[in-house]
Amino acid sequence: MVKRRFSALFLTLTLLLCTLPAAAAEGDNWLVPKVQEAPAFTDMAGVWCEDAVQTVCQTGLMQGRSDGSFNPSGALMPEHIVTICARLYDLLTGGDGTLQEPAADQAWYDPAYESLAEALDYAGGLDALRINIHPDKYSIRRWQFVELLDQTLTAADVTLPAINQITVLPDTTDTAVLKLCSAGILTGSDQYGSFRGNESLNRGQAAAILARLADPAQRQTFTPEPFDLCADVLGVDGATVLLTVGGESVTAELFAYNLCDALCRGDGSTQAALEDAIRNWCFYDAPFQFLAEDLSMRLTAEEQAEAAQAGQNNAGYLGMGAAYWQYKQSGVLLNGNLRMLYWEKDWKTGEAAYHQELEAVSEALLESAEPTAALTSLDLDAIRAKSKNSPICWSGDSL
Description:
Layout: H1 2-19, H2 50-58, H3 78-92, H4 110-119, H5 126-132, H6 142-155, H7 175-182, H8 203-214, H9 229-234, E1 241-245, E2 248-251, H10 252-265, H11 270-285, H12 287-294, H13 301-314, H14 322-345, H15 350-368, E3 370-371, H16 373-376, H17 380-388
Helix pairs in contact: 2-8, 3-4, 3-6, 4-5, 10-11, 10-17, 11-15, 12-14, 12-15, 13-14, 14-15
């Protein structure tokens, strides 16, 4: 009797368990499938990216080293990220991530280059891909990895859902970076969400990016703090007048980047950097507006709207507000219009005449430039130190 009751109870429990919803197995909702078990690496216990390395090795996108370690601080070379992206594309398009073995006369990474060049439909194929990412030449920078990763996702027709509202970062406006930030794949390197695209990428960082890509549960939500170059680096309000040029006031909102960039990138005296900043303003920012004013040239309503839109789109990049980027775009448009005007006057000599006139205007503006007391009272040494540790010195060729 006891045995019969036990059997009935066992059958009931079995039927009940079979009708309960099963918990999703690890990897069931991953973007790419789990294709293997991750080894127990000898150097990953307690390391910040331990879970990410576990995930990315389960997908087969990255592997450990022959000595049983993963080496999270090790550098990534171009051939490594090409191999990663070739495996990723294969996994995203129904494969198992296995690449062909190299032929006897090939380097170990040649099949990955060939596979990815075909997948990305590079004009020129393998040679074009190698021009962009030279094997065995240098360690990879963050922007290079993100560029190739974005191209791979696009080729595989993968669109990642946005979980963050990221439209601009203080050191890049690149759409690939912004997409991955919005998707929670990239999280920035400081409270401002700075990308630091020109910094080298190590294996642990790559694993973290790829793990978030593979496993939606690891993606990060974040809201960057706004970066204001005037307030955070110069320590002044953007409306503060720092210069008068050609009788016009130049506010910190328009001049802050020129000053901080010159201080950040120059190795000479701060006074020399200040002089460079003023010269750059007079030659590369202001002359188009002044020359256009002399010629009674105005932007059209459409062009004004375009400049205003550029201001809104780029507000926050380099810590500068919409007014700065609107002014910059207005200069770009006026430059084009002025060149056309001079060219139409005389297509043979117009270009040279325009440059001569522009240089004359710039020289006159430089002669008229006067720093205000607000500018001369700034601690340029302190501003240089802050500039070197700010997003403006991390910007560059990040795509």
